[in-house]
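Can anyone check this?
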Amino acid sequence: MVSSVCVLGSTGSIGTQALDVARRLGIRVTALAAGTREKELEDQCRAFCPGTVYIDESCYSSLRVRLADTSVRVVTGREALSALAAEDPSPMVVNALTGILGLLPTLAAVEAGKDVALANKETLVAGGEIVMRRAAEKGVRILPVDSEHSAIFQCLQSGGRPKKLLLTGSGGPFFGKDRAFLETVRPEDALKHPNWQMGAKITVDSSTLMNKGLELIEAVHLFGIRPEQVEVVIQRESVIHSLVQFEDNAVLAQLGVPDMRLCIQYALTYPERMPCPTGELDLFALEKLTFARPDTETFPLLALAKDAIARGGNLPAAMNGANEEAVGRFLRGEIRYTELFELVIQATEQTAYCANPSLETIFASDEAARGFVRAG
């Protein structure tokens, strides 16, 4: 079990649960990073006494005043966030940041020889080839925190060569709905996930099935598998978190109640398993387990993601940037739900393709796609 951690994105859903796991296991928290939730971050600093804390520039001065009676060092700025990931003394960084903001801190941690417990899927969507190559060269581990990738990772511990990864998803709040219904969807509708309590951006992504698309791309990089070897399966009850089919056609699944603390804890204690406060799965209480194919005609972003990773290069980064921007516009009431689909597809299709992008090209593609969506 890791002795101490740095938690990036500490005030979000995954971040707060990671702190809960750390507290319960006696893991020291040496650094924290958050966006603009300064009161929550102040409370976390007083509870965990980290050496350093990062916050958005808009809240920097205020948080320094709030923490003036403590020894906590407050930093801000993008370079400071990456420096925190690299220079903090903990051997592991938990990256629960939202969006492409998480890419550079992940790389900084890897370059510093740290393991990364990764909940920031955009890191691998935008820069997966670069990140996984450097992790291999540095001899560090990228340990998945997403429930689906944690499930696959756990199934793979049995050994054997995977033939197919079966990536499950709930289907979101609009499963079974048609395009006409989607024309009426409001932000408050998209934020009502049937099974999980998550942040706004990922909840909207779940409703559009883009979250499954991002996870498919992430799985390709995490597990070194071809895109055509990943199949998305709608599992409405969110009990089977994902499955692996091996070369002999045996299929292993990881089941559990929908509680992210198990996935977080396994990343922090791997390869050990320890008692966890998640509820026990009561098989006798389950009325049924259902499976369905995703509707990629009504929800076209999953098909877009499959095409983007099949072509590779800078297209996943452009698609991800366009999606982040479009989700933001939808949540602010600037565009309709179905316009979100259209803008992301158009922004990705108009991207100038680069087969082997540098970090600079990745960020340029991200920004160009965002600009397209902002202007759309």
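Reply from J.R.: I decoded it. The radius of gyration is 20 Å.
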